[in-house]
Amino acid sequence: NGGEDSKRDIEIYGRLANAVKMHDESIRVGGMxxxxxxxxxxxxxxxQKHRYPIDFLTVESFGADPSRVCGEIESLSMFAKNQGFAxxxxxxxxxxxxxxxxxxxxxxxxALRVNDPRTRDMRRELALSARSVxxxxxxxxxxLELNAVDDxxxxxxxxxxxxxxxxxSLTDRFGMPEKPFYAFRSFGELYRARNAVLCxxxxxxxxxxxxxxxxxxxxxxxxxxxxxASFGGCGVVDLRIDGITDEQxxxxxxxxxxxxxxxxxxxxxxxxxxKRLVLNVSEYGAVLIKLH
Length: 292
Known about the structure:
There is one protein chain. By secondary structure, the protein is α+β, with helices and mostly antiparallel strands. It is about 35% helix and about 25% strand. The chain has helices spanning about 1-25, 35-50, 65-80, 100-105, 110, 120-130, 135-145, 180-190, and strands at about 55-65, 90-95, 150-155, 195, 210-220, 225-230, 235-240, 250-255, 260-270, 275-280, 285-290. The longest helix is centred in the N-terminal third of the chain and has 22 residues, at about 1-25. It is globular and about 65 Å long. The relative contact order is 0.10.
């Protein structure tokens, strides 16, 4: 009945979307929060065939590969354009790291059932994994990778409700920060710098990704911010910084790993228009570099 249920849901969406647009054309309509890209494509095909209005598409991702998640979203965006929805925005309604080794053959929806005692230990392991340094590295890598995808209009992390959810990985029940908290705080500094600058990661031939993710920005006040994430990374990052201004003569390096919580690890003097920094990073962790 899965196919019939999906068809019925799409028909209901079409009726509601048409009714909303007839009432007020300016109201934005969209949906639905699928974790399966095939179902999202099915919705878009139906909207194109039956001329259902759609302004945004909501998807969700529970996985363990930031590159794959963003690659699927870019593929979905291209599919939407081919269906005639060039201005369609994509919203990542829920995302979090789910360690597939913990899940095994158990479907995620079954594992997340709060009242099921058979999966209680599995839920605990998944929650602890999301709070760990690996979970923090995943959060950092996802934010940096999502930051480079133009068609993503928003992304909502799951979960940030410490008082009511056992899957909140930002803080514990008493509001004390967990490892991912520092990844989000660091990304906030990068985001507030506002002026994005070119930042690329050289990929190794034969590998889907190197496990290193990066983004950089310049604040209105002239401070440079570089953020790196290592998710299954290579251990050593050769960072080349080009075009350093005369005002930027020092680099403060902050690190998040199994021991440090984005604490100052080193201060390096900079000189000239180009600078090379060789960073020793953990397999899972994040780095924030401030140029000033």
